[in-house]
Amino acid sequence: MNGSAPVAEAPGAVRLATPTGRRVLVTTVLGSGMALLDSTVVNVALPRIGADLDADLAVLQWTVNAYMLTLAGLILLGGALGDRYGRRRIFLVGVVWFAVASFLCGLAPNAGVLVTARALQGVGGALLTPGSLALIQATFHPDDRARAVGAWSGLGGVAAAVGPFLGGWLVDGPGWRWVFWLNVPLAVLCVPVALRSVPESRDPRAHGRFDVTGAVLAALCLGAVTYALIEAPDAGASPAVVTAAVAGVLLGVAFWFWERRRPDPMLPLSIFSSRQFTAVNVVTLCVYAAFGGFFFLAVLQLQISVGYSALAAGTALLPTTMLMLLLSSRAGDLGTRIGPRIPLTVGPLLCAAGLLLMARVAEGASYWRDVLPALVVMGAGMVVLVAPLTATVLASVDVGRAGLASGINNAAARAAGLVAVAALPLLAGLDPHDYRSPDRFTDAFRSAMVICALLLVVGGLIAWGTVRSDALEPEAPGGPERCHAGCRTHCAVSAPPLDPGEEPAAAPPSGRGGP
């Protein structure tokens, strides 16, 4: 480099094995990993946060869900901003925003301030999360995209899985506030690498006004439903709970009508004309609802009922980390070779078996006999599932619409986790004031694990019945990509303009369009 800053290669031409390719991958993993790490590292700190702030279970749920709410509600808008103003630019704004909000979380003197700062964190996450995968898809050579997505998924999964261990070490050491302050040095590492090595990219077809109304309606809908679910165990069918539930449904209907009638919507409903895309997103809802419930409740169960320290509870989850680290990047290649149908069926079923094994964990449980086998089976299922799921979502639509597809899938995953964290204590019969009781929490935990396992089984069965084995194969000549540049009939259904935040499909070199 001869002392000068490295010059980023042109978008779409960077090879994964080059120094620039490795720096792009590091940048995207740091950014998305920061958000994923935070979403799990906070869980292990919840008992200590509740004790320090004298908070009941509802406050702990809001500590998780305030972040998920703004993230899920605004992630499509964040992707659209990246398409219009530059994906690297919006990604970097998100990284800095997220770091500042994390710093405020660590300073929070009470539960109200903490929940508000968590909501601000979600705004930053909505800017950086779609941008991370968008940069991979827009930057790498088509032949390297599937492998890059697999590496990104695997390393991102590691960041999520290592969170409980790291969070436990911080909580038992310098204190729970450091689980938020941890994001600041990660941002400091990410920003200069992105500025030096990642080429800017945008969608030249992005135009029109941003669908702010649609984003607000989506966030308010999720917020009202979440409020009703969290408050129902304590308040029952009170006027406030019923009003919130009804308002959530009405806001959801209003969002659907708004997106249907708006000429340039945040969520073009025509994308769901792809049966493959719709099916994979239904699988995503089932799978990530179960994951959200598991990661929220498992570390609480290990601390409240089994008696682990925060560090021990986090360390207990390390097997999933190691499996994701060692095997996830290869799962993308496996899905390409054998097709995604089998991985998307076997993965959820393995995870379901792991959760049923986890339901045995209670006071006096042995780590080697009870906890470890459950986590190994759960981790194996995640390895089989995560990378092929991401690749199939991107490949289920034309290259030009893969950004929108990934944004919708991201929002579906976050919304599923949000609703699961809000609903599972209600469905499992856990009162907000009783979560510190080991016996009552264990009973609720067992019921919740069975519910989550059933969701995973449903997801696996849907995948078996709907996902095509050839979903990751390149489109045959004359397919949607060939006509995309000038066609507004076929492409209006299977490949309209790219929207929020990611870009070409993971399948080489064009994604599959249409049902």
UniProtKB/TrEMBL annotation:
Signal peptide: none annotated. The keyword Membrane applies. The chain crosses the membrane at residues 24-46, 58-78, 90-109, 115-136, 148-166, 178-198, 210-230, 236-258, 279-300, 306-326, 338-359, 371-399, 411-428, 448-467. The keyword Transferase does not apply. InterPro entries: EmrB-like, MFS, MFS_dom, MFS_trans_sf. It is found in: Cell membrane. Gene3D superfamilies: MFS general substrate transporter like domains (1.20.1250.20), Multidrug resistance protein D (1.20.1720.10). Residues 24-471 form the Major facilitator superfamily (MFS) profile domain. Keywords: Antibiotic resistance, Cell membrane, Membrane, Transmembrane, Transmembrane helix, Transport. This is MFS transporter. It is a multi-pass membrane protein. Its main location: membrane. Residues 503-515 have a biased composition (Low complexity). It holds the Pfam family MFS_1. Residues 494-515 are annotated as: Disordered.
